[in-house]
Write a structure and sequence with these properties.
Helices cover 74% and strands 0% of the residues. It has two helices and no strands. It is rod-shaped, with a radius of gyration of 45 Å. The termini are far apart. The model has no long low-confidence stretch (mean pLDDT 83).
């Protein structure tokens, strides 16, 4: 009975040692994977979240301004079209002023 208990104790110690070694290997692998991912992401030249949000806000603002300007152009085009539809009235012509030799101020 004593040998069986000792055998189980030895197996438990080996299992604990293996679990500790596996835990250490797991940590090392995680660190290596993390370092490799950081290197790959740095090589991909990706933007940060802050930069993306700033560009997104600029694009939204530009889109709103473009829509406003588009509406203004449409109003101006409609106004111009209405003006073109109206018959053009000629302004009354003034009779030409005839110059007389007395009215000439150059001597």
């Amino acid at each position: 009975m004593q040998t069986t208990g000792k055998l189980f104790d030895d197996i438990a110690r080996v299992a604990n040692g293996a679990a500790g070694a596996v835990s250490g290997v797991k940590d090392e692998i995680e660190q290596m994977v993390k370092a490799r991912l950081e290197r790959v992401l740095a090589d991909m030249d990706l933007v940060t979240r802050e930069e993306f949000d700033a560009v997104k806000a600029m694009a939204t603002k530009a889109r709103m301004e473009q829509e406003t300007l588009s509406e203004r152009v449409e109003i101006l085009e409609n106004t111009l079209a209405k003006m073109a539809e109206k018959p053009a009235t000629k302004p009354a012509r003034k009779s030409p002023v005839k110059k007389t030799p007395d009215s000439d101020s150059t001597n």
